[in-house]
Design a protein that fits this description.
Hypothetical Protein Yqey, Chain: A, domain1, Arc Repressor Mutant, subunit A, 7 helices
Amino acid sequence: MSDPKTLLNDALKEAMKSKDNATRDVIRLLQSAVKQIEIDTRKELTADEIMDVLQKEAKKRRESITEYEKGGRTDLADAEKAELVIIEKFLPKQLTPDEVREIVRAVIAETGATSAKDLNKVMPLVMAKVKGVADGKLVNQIVKELLS
């Protein structure tokens, strides 16, 4: 996989050429989030760290969408969804709930977990396997479902 910074720069140039202002603005937001962390930590981020920043930005959008929909603000939820679609172009393909369920089942079998009390045994192992390709909230939901 290419360097995420290069991907973002190339996508920004492409968006500017094609006058895609929405994509351009989201990419600039992502780049500034990365730059801010580099300034705060006084070091250049690795590709994995940049992907973590992109994951966090996607998570923020998902949470905002949920809140806006609860509040009946579909206009704002739609704007966040549009941004999320653009951010997800730079993230690895996300696992489906069924794929996550398979991984969780394997970890449960591996650890011998039997009840909800074993959640803290299973979660870290599953999260290590799905880092960057599955949402933590989805993983938690599936682990609880399979351990109950």
